[in-house]
Amino acid sequence: MKQEELRATGSLAAVFAMRLLGLFMIYPVFTTYAQHLSGATPALIGLALGAYGLTQGLLQIPFGFLSDRIGRKRMISLGLVFFGIGSVVAALSTSIGGVVLGRVLQGMGAVGSVILALVADLTSEEVRTKAMAIVGITIGLSFAVAIVAGPVLASFIGVAGIFWLTAVLAMIGIAITWFAVPNPANVVRHRDTEAVPALFARVLSNGELLRLDFAIFALHAILTMSFLAVPALLVKSLHLTAHMDWIVYLPVLFVSVAFMVPAIIVAEKGGRMKEVFIVAIALLAVSLIALTLGGSIGAVVVAALVVFFTAFNIMEAMLPSLVTKVAPAGAKGTATGVYSTAQFLGIFVGGAGGGLAFAAGGARGVFAIAFIIALIWLAVAITMHRPGKISSHLVHLENLDRKNISALEAKLRAAPGVVDAVVAADEDVAYLKIDRTRFDAETVAAIVGG
Asked: Which pLDDT value is given to residue 314?
């Protein structure tokens, strides 16, 4: 990776981190804080926690389309302005309704797809996968840091202070975008990172992709609703004072990541992705049963949280890889866009649904509903096909004969190890789905060169 590409990737990953830190820091502390807001009810507290997911999910793909027309940096800045305004509204609000409004405005900063598109604009095809991996690692680290840092910061500046800090982070993100991120020479729609309207029907009719969309929907619905109940369990079972949750979250997350790594190795290197996937869902369900039945026992709660976050981290690592393997050639960006929309809608449904469940049955009601979602997810996942050792491969085309694109695609599909091929004439590249155990790069090079 060239220095300019590394600079672009690192600075855009930092913009992602600024936004995600602000979103996730309130997760472990919001329920306790919101109980003291005017007009607060369990249902409205849940709605406030998940509200940003609704606007985030609905605007994610449109923001990407608009960035093609008016520029990536402008759309990132506009989104971060909305995010900052929403944070200020939430910080100033003394009523639950005001916080709901602030969270909705925060969600309007749906810049994730635009950031990824700009990463693609600023990196070559050869290093793009590595660049996306760096951004992905940043997302995971941001979540872990935020969950631990949220309670610590809340003890010093309060939850309202975290909202103010989030607004500051949004402004820092804008500054990084304009002063640290290089300007792209060209703004191009990349099919491996952006949604293409013509491909929606193909993606939405793919049963395997729909299973994965439901998976990320269920995972984040369960995560969001669980944070409505877990803080109270920690106080009850471990007698923690307010904002001391980090004492539990820090070792729990550390241990869960230690368990996650060998599981991912077995899945990816050992060819056991389906088995690991099914086991992770089952572990998630077991942890929810433990939290439902043993929520008053400290050791049970801690052990259940280790299992919960181990399963969560495994899924967060596996699902993007599975989407890449399953998505048709040239449709990875579209498949990822639909997948991201499902994720954010899961956050919204988890918050709103979890709030209603808490109102009806307290913490046990929340975990019971989450357990039912996990069981439905398990039933859906059991029928998934076993993913092969399939990966994406990009071939740059020089002197492309636009009159014979169909013939070129047919030749590429007939090459050893090529599962599917799509030529994107507007990008001068061919998107391939390949089986690396049989792929012959020299044959493909000969076809393209000939």
From this structure: 95
